[in-house]
Write a structure and sequence with these properties.
38% of the residues lie in helices and 20% in strands. The protein has 373 residues and is an alpha/beta fold.
């Protein structure tokens, strides 16, 4: 069955965690070389590969005399600055043995939240793939601040899956997959081989723990899988330290946990709005406006807006909530806060009279609006 599920795959995003390619002493160059060899084998088989690799902080912290996770952001960023070049040098040597060229791509959330920069990053990655180059992507930890963080590379890998229009996301972890209970606390915990839909039960099974080397625990991996599957891409979480895991996975062996793609996949732009663009404010709608959006698939008009929170400019993403404050959608807004405060609650026909101009009839067009699943 697993082989049939992967038969359509031609382009794959592989995310490797710090727990796979690093240890207490820093970067595990032996594991990194093994991973590079396995990815080179996939390329030999005809697959296009994009690698999202953690490990820069782990690779650089030893030079600063740090053991465990760096305690402050400046220490983490300093370790990343040292470790990123060391990690890329190791990848370059390992992939070079198979005749492959690698390219370093460092991103922040701001790079992908801006539509023009998003498309530019996409064009760069597509060009690299056209030239048979292996893109190695990481968050730009040296300059990133909380406001523009992806949060973790699991999240980044899901965004990259959409960015490069991949057919599969593989998350290489230091555990065998998703269990029904925490296997560290429950020796009788059972591996879940197949997930048809990521609901509350699956999210609860994921727990909420991280590791000493990285920031992502199983909960972040499930969140990444959910984002990828909503784009229509299957996701596999497997143990990256299992010998030959990638070849065995593509040969159809039932390894790890596989998450089926959602039946009603999101369009690429709506996926970008929902998961990549960071919301800047909040709109509170009356019941009639909520029904128009949820039940009839309409655009949001100013008449249904009863309140506004936060600040935003035209083109920003905003959260859309009912009067109780419960979020039910996200969308890209056509008017800045100062403009919206003047026209909210009014009819579309009144916009030009109030502002002296009118960009659009809609505050948020339905094509730029995503309902929460």
């Amino acid at each position: 069955m697993r082989k049939n599920l992967l038969s359509h795959v031609r382009r794959v995003v592989v995310k490797v965690g710090s727990g796979v390619i690093s240890g207490p002493e820093g970067l595990d160059e032996g594991m990194l070389a093994t991973l590079s060899h396995d990815l080179s084998e996939l390329i030999r088989r005809g697959y296009e590969v994009v690698l999202v690799s953690s490990g820069a902080v782990a690779a650089g912290k030893g030079a600063l005399g740090i053991s465990g996770r760096p305690a402050t952001i400046p220490l983490k960023q300093a370790a990343a600055a040292i470790g990123q070049s060391r990690m890329m040098h190791a990848y370059q040597g390992a992939f070079g043995q198979a005749g492959h060229t690698v390219a370093q791509v460092l991103l922040t959330r701001d790079d992908l939240a801006n539509r023009r920069r998003y498309l530019n990053a996409r064009n760069t990655l597509m060009t690299l793939l056209d030239f048979k180059v292996v893109p190695i992507i990481n968050e730009n930890d040296t300059v990133v601040v909380d406001e523009i963080r992806f949060g973790d590379n699991d999240n980044l890998s899901a965004m990259v899956t959409n960015l490069v229009e991949a057919n599969l996301l593989v998350i290489l972890s230091d555990v065998n997959g998703l269990y029904d209970r925490d296997p560290n606390l429950h020796p009788d915990a059972k591996l879940i081989p197949l997930v048809e839909r990521i609901g509350e039960e699956i999210e609860a099974a994921a727990g909420d723990t991280g590791t000493d080397h990285g920031t992502g625990g199983m909960a972040t991996k499930i969140k990444a899988a959910k984002r990828a599957t909503l784009y229509g891409v299957g996701t596999a979480i497997v143990n990256g330290r299992t010998p030959g895991v990638l070849q065995r996975l593509f040969d159809g062996e039932e390894l790890g946990t596989y998450f089926l793609p959602a039946r009603d996949r999101m369009a690429a732009k709506k996926h970008w709005i929902a998961f990549t663009k960071k919301p800047r404010g909040k709109l509170l709608l009356d019941d009639g406006a909520k029904r128009a959006l949820v039940e009839r698939g309409k655009s949001l008009l100013p008449s249904g807006i009863q309140g506004v929170e936060g600040g935003f400019d035209r083109g920003d993403a905003v959260r859309i909530c009912d009067l109780a404050g419960e979020e039910f959608a996200i969308g890209v807004i056509n008017y800045a806060l100062a403009e919206l405060l003047r026209i909210m609650g009014k009819k579309t026909s009144e916009i030009e009279g109030v502002l002296g101009y009118k960009y659009y009839d809609e505050v948020i067009h339905r094509d730029n609006l995503v309902l929460k699943k």
